[in-house]
Amino acid sequence: MATRAKRSTRRRNLLMAFGPGALAGRPEGWIFVVCCCLGVALISISDIRYASHGSVGALAFIPVILAGWLLSRVQTAVVTLVTMALRMAPMAAASIPVVTGVTQGLTVPVLAVLAQLAAEFVLLANSSEMRLERARAEGDRIAALEQAKSDFLRLASHELRGPLGVVRGYASMLEDGTLGELPDEANAIMPIVSSKVKAMGMMVDLMMETARLDDERLQLRKEPTDLGELVRECAGEMRSVAGPTHPIVVEAAPEPIVATADRSRIATIVNNLIDNAIKYSPAGGRVSCRVNPSDGGAIIAVSDQGIGIPKEDQGRLFARFSRVHTEDAPEIPGTGLGLYVSRELARLHGGDIRVESAAGRGSTFLVELPVRN
Ligand code: ADP
């Protein structure tokens, strides 16, 4: 009997260590202990997962602590009420200790579940924060890359402009005979030199315009401009680039269409479009330019009989550095800046550019411009 009493006291002491309310040696005490162990295990799992994701969001556990306090209040009230009720029914009085144990014991797992939820919330907050951080870093990287591209364009175009001007000057002096008679072989290659110098000049101008657009430094110098006359001039200039392989024809309305526009910028647009029409057409492909009035404005259309552009690629043509490569067309060198700059210039005038094309069936680029703005 003495040994039994001692064992019971030891068990009671041991169980008391798990918290007030544990009734050692009786079923409700065991229920409490099992619930306790379950709760402690759940909390530990939450803690481990939480700890492995850093300590941000510890505030999420405040509701758990508050819920614990609230639960202890509710638990006391429930136990008191149930005990009172059961005492009134002498037959059910025997179940009082079980109800007490269950109520007390359930506190811990409920808290554990809340702790688990809090931990999950913290994990979610942490991972969203990490994702946001990663997206921010990626955004900064892309912005730095764009800035580096702009800096390069600005620097390279400035450095190239000076020497190119000198080459252009000497080439024209050689061509017009200012530097004396040229041998026949030199005379034969001069048109090629001039067209390459012109093409390089266009590329450097595009780089400079892109850098100006990036820095929002581009200022239009508007003046009354006869669009028909301007397009004829551009076609004349571009004939030297095209050579005899691509006939360029102009059809303009007989009456002048005068727009308030930056003459040199509209020329840049038209030259780019004619240049592309030549570049992306096989030899013999005709390039036609039309100038017509439209509702409150004018439309300049440049058409070719070239490789065309698949519908699915047309949406990205006007993006900076965007190029389209189709498997059936040979890779044609370019910067991917011409259409970007052209559209930005058209938009600065209050107009726009759109394309009508299909793979293998030529393209038409339409520049819409308001006549007075
Ligand atoms: P680039 O010609 O230097 O590549 P652009 O901005 O002028 O740059 O043109 C972007 C892309 O649009 C080109 O790479 C080409 O694939 C396509 N493109 C432009 N004009 C034409 C055209 N007339 N016919 C077919 N494709 C064209």
Write the layout of secondary structure elements.
Elements: H1 2-16, H2 27-51, H3 62-88, H4 96-176, H5 184-214, E1 223-226, H6 227-242, E2 248-252, E3 258-261, H7 263-279, E4 287-294, E5 297-303, H8 338-348, E6 352-357, E7 363-370
Parallel strand pairs: 2-4
Antiparallel strand pairs: 1-3, 4-5, 5-7, 6-7
The protein binds adenosine-5'-diphosphate.
Task: Summarize the structure in words.
There is one protein chain. The strands form two sheets. A five-stranded mixed beta sheet has the order 2-4-5-7-6, covered by helices on one side. Strands 1-3 form a two-stranded antiparallel sheet. The protein has eight helices and seven strands. It has 373 residues and is α+β, with helices and mostly antiparallel strands. The model is unreliable at 14-25 and 50-56 (pLDDT under 50). Helix 3 (62-88) packs antiparallel against helix 4. The structure holds adenosine-5'-diphosphate (ADP). Adenosine-5'-diphosphate binds at residues 272, 276-277, 280, 304, 306-307, 309, 317, 322-324, 334-340, 363.
